[in-house]
Specification:
Shape: globular
Strand order of the largest sheet: 2-3-4-1-5
CATH architecture of the largest domain: 3-Layer(aba) Sandwich
Helix content: 55-70%
CATH class of the largest domain: Alpha Beta
CATH superfamily of the largest domain: P-loop containing nucleotide triphosphate hydrolases
Number of helices: 16
Oligomer: single chain
Number of strands: 7
Structural class: alpha/beta
Largest sheet: 5 strands, parallel
Distance between the termini: 45 Å
Number of domains: 3
CATH topology of the largest domain: Rossmann fold
Radius of gyration: 21 Å
Length: 354
C-alpha cells in the first residue's frame, strides 16, 4: 500500500502563486528532484520576478550542511530592497544539525511576512520537533514520484510542450527508458526534438534510437554541473565520459562552443535584446534559450574571458602532451571553470546550445 500523499501538488502551487498568494514558509518535500526544481522555479519567478532571479539583492541560497540557524535568521530578517518580498532558500534542509533546527523553532511561530523561506529535501526526520512543527507552519509541496498510472498523461503533456506527438508505443518506450524519472523524460524529449526535426511524430523506434546512440545524457549532465559551478558532480560526470571513450579534444570543442553561445547571449542581454528574440539571433531552438540566459547571468565577463584562456591552454596541452596526462588536464580544466561561487540553475534540465 502506497503512503498517503502530504501537501499540495506543484500544479496547485502554481495556481496559488498566479493568484498572488505567497506563503512565508514553503517546504518542497519528496524524492522526485524534477518536481522539487519545478516548484522552486515557480516560487522564484513569482517572488523575485523575471529580472531579479539569483543575482538581485533579495535572493539568498543556503545549504543545510553548510549553514546554521543564525545565518538563516539573519537572511530572513533582512528587509527586501526595492521590492515587496525577498526569497531565502535552504537546500537539503534535512542536513541541518538538530541543535540548529531547535534554534529555528521560534521563527516558525512568527515568520517575517516580507520573506518567503523555502526549504527543500528528499525527506525529513519526523522525530525532530522542528520538522513536526514545520509541516504545521508551512505550505508543503508534495514532490514524491509520480504514480505510474499518471505517467502516460504526463509524458503526453510534456511532449506537446516540445511540439512532439508520441504514439502509444513511443510513450510506453519513453516511460520504460526513463524508469519513471521525470527529468530523464524531459531530457529524452529534448534529444528527440533534434533527432526528428522537422518531423514531430515519435515512435518507439525513435525513442530507442536516441537512447541507444547517445552518451550525450552524461555530457549534458557534465555541462549542467559546470554551469552551476558544481565541481564535484562535474568531475564525476567527466570521469564517466572519459571512461566511455569520449576523446578529450572533442569534449573540449563542445565546451568551447557552449561557452561561445553563452558569451553571445550575454552580449545580447547587455544590449537589452528581449529573450524572445534571442533564438533567432543565436540560431538555436527557443526552448534552449532559458538555459543559455541562466548561464550567461551566472558568469561575469571576466569569468568568461578566464574560461576561454583555460580552453586555449588545455587545447595546447592536449595536442602537445602524452595520452596519460589527458585526464589530469581535463580535471584541472573543470576545477578552473568551477572557480567562484557555486550557483544553482532553474528547474529546467540544462540544455546545451547546438
Amino acid at each position: 500500500m502506497k503512503a498517503k500523499r502530504e501537501g499540495i501538488r506543484v500544479a496547485e502551487l502554481k495556481r496559488q502563486l498566479a493568484s498572488g498568494v505567497y506563503a512565508p514558509i514553503y517546504v518542497l518535500l519528496g524524492e522526485e528532484s524534477y518536481l522539487r526544481e519545478t516548484a522552486l522555479a515557480a516560487i522564484r519567478r513569482a517572488v523575485l520576478g523575471a529580472e531579479d532571479q539569483e543575482t538581485g539583492f533579495n535572493y539568498d541560497l543556503l545549504y543545510g550542511d553548510e549553514t546554521d540557524a543564525l545565518e538563516v535568521l539573519n537572511r530572513c530578517d533582512t528587509f527586501p530592497a526595492f521590492a515587496d518580498r525577498r526569497l531565502v532558500i535552504i537546500r537539503n534542509v534535512g542536513a541541518l544539525p538538530a541543535r540548529e533546527t531547535e534554534r529555528l523553532l521560534p521563527y516558525l511561530k512568527a515568520p517575517v511576512e516580507t520573506t518567503s523561506l523555502v526549504l527543500t529535501g528528499d525527506k525529513l526526520d519526523g522525530r525532530l520537533k522542528f520538522f513536526q512543527s514545520l509541516k504545521a507552519a508551512a505550505v508543503t509541496v508534495d514532490c514524491s514520484p509520480l504514480d505510474s498510472r499518471l505517467m502516460p498523461d504526463w509524458i503526453e503533456e510534456q511532449a506537446k510542450g516540445f511540439g512532439l506527438c508520441l504514439d502509444d508505443a513511443g510513450s510506453e518506450a519513453l516511460h520504460h527508458a526513463s524508469g519513471g524519472n521525470l527529468a530523464v523524460v524531459r531530457r529524452e524529449l529534448e534529444k528527440l526534438v533534434d533527432y526528428l526535426h522537422p518531423s514531430a511524430s515519435v515512435t518507439a523506434a525513435d525513442v530507442e534510437s536516441v537512447r541507444g546512440a547517445d552518451t550525450g545524457a552524461t555530457v549534458w549532465d557534465f555541462l549542467g554541473a559546470l554551469a552551476r559551478k558544481d565541481r564535484g558532480n562535474a568531475l564525476r560526470a567527466l570521469g564517466k565520459i572519459l571512461d566511455a571513450g569520449e576523446p578529450p579534444l572533442r569534449l573540449l570543442g563542445l565546451l568551447a562552443f557552449q561557452w561561445r553561445q553563452v558569451w553571445k547571449t550575454r552580449e545580447q542581454l547587455d544590449r537589452r535584446v528581449p529573450e524572445a528574440g534571442l533564438a533567432r539571433i543565436l540560431g538555436v531552438p527557443p526552448f534552449r534559450i532559458q538555459g543559455l540566459v541562466e548561464q550567461a547571468r551566472m558568469f561575469s565577463d571576466n569569468e568568461l574571458a578566464r574560461c576561454f584562456d583555460a580552453f586555449r591552454e588545455v587545447d595546447s596541452s592536449l595536442k602537445g602532451g602524452g595520452r596519460g596526462a589527458e585526464r589530469l588536464v581535463m580535471e584541472r580544466l573543470v576545477l578552473n571553470l568551477c572557480r567562484g561561487e557555486r550557483r544553482v540553475t532553474s528547474s529546467r534540465a540544462f540544455v546545451p546550445a547546438r
